[in-house]
Amino acid sequence: MKVSSHLIFLIRKPLLLASALCGMAPHGAFAALAPEADVRRDAVVEAVQRVMPSVVNVATEELIPVRDSVEDLFREFFDPYHRSRQPNTQYSLGSGVIIDEDGFVLTNFHVVNRARRVWVKLSDGRELECDRVSGTSFSDVALLQIRASKGEKFTAAKFASDDDLLLGETVLALGNPFGLGGSVSRGILSSKTRRPPTENEPLDVLDWLQTDAAINPGNSGGPLVNLRGELVGINVAIYREGHGIGFAIPVKRVSAALAEIYSPEVLKKMWFGARVRPRGFPLQIMSVQVESPAGKAGLRAGDEILRLNGKTPRGFIDFAHELIDAKDQRDLSLVVKRGVEQKTVSFRLVPEKVFFNMDLIRKKTGASLQELTPELEQGLGLSSVQGLLVAGVERESPAAAAELERGMLVTSIDGQVATDLVAAAKVLYAKAKGEKSQFQVVAPRQRGVFLELRQGSVDITLR
Fold it and tell me: Which of 60, 73, 295, 375 is most buried as measured by Cβ atoms within 10 A of its Cβ?
């Protein structure tokens, strides 16, 4: 009995105290002191709510020409009618993430590469067509822009810092798996420097992120985010041999790819010569080519961009757009901060072909290259091969030492296809004096009425 009465006392005492307080406090004030928190609204839910308006479903339409023996028979006998028939249409689905309020969307290059039409479905259910802006297969990053009404703005995701990754931290994969619509999966960051597989080869691509958050077909191009709702990667692939193993391109590589593909050099063939980090504010210059307009204007890596032509850029897209729209006859004014000092510089974009040309290639190698014309291809019998023709080789030059000869065809330089002089010159310009550059070459040899094509490679020490 003593125990029971003691228990009753412990229960009743708070009730008596509460009654006393209620008599002293205004009616209703007691309930407002400590509202009960919703236990379901954790960090994961908060992060999803922040980033979901930026996630889009990407749909593409691709025309697939179909040819088989029956097809060829119809084409032979009913060609005029047959030409009017529409090829088969294939639809595919992927994901993307909005990175700028003007409707710029990041996705994977392989999602939109072969598409004839691209459109996105927003989190609010609207479907809008997109324009492909730029992209590269080796980065597997592509940039789209939503065709929106004038003045319409979109919610953009925020980038995480380049190396702000914690092994084992919770990450969220968002996207459009199997075309089911907006979806979220949770996991941890399993590796920060994984080597994903390529066909039947061992893992050999550096610095992809690995996660056990479910990434399925259709998730490609969607965001991988941390618990702050910041973009840490772009979902790209799954590992077929394992369960719960997915990969994402880290934000550091995404940023580098974006700085490359959305630039006046790529989109307008105009040379600026500085790379700007696409995230953070103020924007910061990552690198500067010495002989470029940016270099001659005195810009340096680490400079913070404050104003371009009197306006403070809202972000990387806004800054790059101003450069891309500039003409070579127009002077541009840039205000940067270097340490505690502000500096104003002026520069003018120049066509890339003015600097990156045959003269630069000859200066670096001693070889004169020229682009193939239809007449040259026909005369040399090289219609089946693409490359740059070796028009001449200076005596005692690096090219001569490597036994490069007049009449050879350079098909690639350091692994990049050599089809035009500007691209070839840019590859060589990026290398310092004394470095080696590998040329893949084709050497035509006439054997009676036959043309023999011998393939090989030469290493040229650049000067």
Answer: 60
